[in-house]
Amino acid sequence: MRFPAVLWRRGVLVAVIAVLTLAVSGLGVRLWSAGPPGDESLEAGFARDMQAHHAQAVQMALIVRDRTGDREVRTLAYDIATTQQQQIGQMYAWLDVWGLPQASVEPRMAWMRQGHQNMPGMGQGSAQMSGMGQGSVQMPGMATREQLKQLEQASGKEAEILFLRLMIPHHQGGVQMAQAAQGSGQPQVRRMAGSILAAQKAEIELMRGMLAARGAAESPSPSG
Hints:
Blueprint (H helix, E strand, L loop, with lengths): L6 H19 L1 H4 L11 H26 L3 H28 L12 H8 L26 H9 L2 H26 L5 H27 L11
Helix pairs in contact: 1-4, 3-4, 3-5, 3-6, 3-7, 5-7, 6-7, 7-8
């Protein structure tokens, strides 16, 4: 069965429904009893950047669903796409409830330092802080345009292996971002981060096993 092409538009609908539900039920204020996060907050940065990070995972999942007939890979791709699209809708709704724009003039990932500083045991010298300056850092685990193009042009086992090789580091990047978001003072954000951590760590191990079953390493050899 072909994966529904309307998934992207459905994500916007999910966000709209979530916002309306919060407004109608009157939970919009009570959910954020400490006051809504500000535009430069960890929570706003996480919601914006994780939406973008998730969107690429959904994109790769949709591509591989059309490039292979393997049931295991297609099931994994479907799970990634549906779960992360639903989370995109939740984060979109958060920003709307907070009265914040979906985009910001702040550099990408600038919130990560704040997140690690708020986590117990995370100081300036933490290895997870390595390479993080006062501005932004590269969003971890993102595939390049060239890699996405390669995935679009591949098929069968080749597409499966390339997808898994791209999605493992992508998930590892998502784990880093979710770990930083656990420094949030908002329980809803911490719960979302915890859910992402649990799911993506489990999927990383699953994908490593799938690569091994296909006789492939996580990274291609220098000869290709």
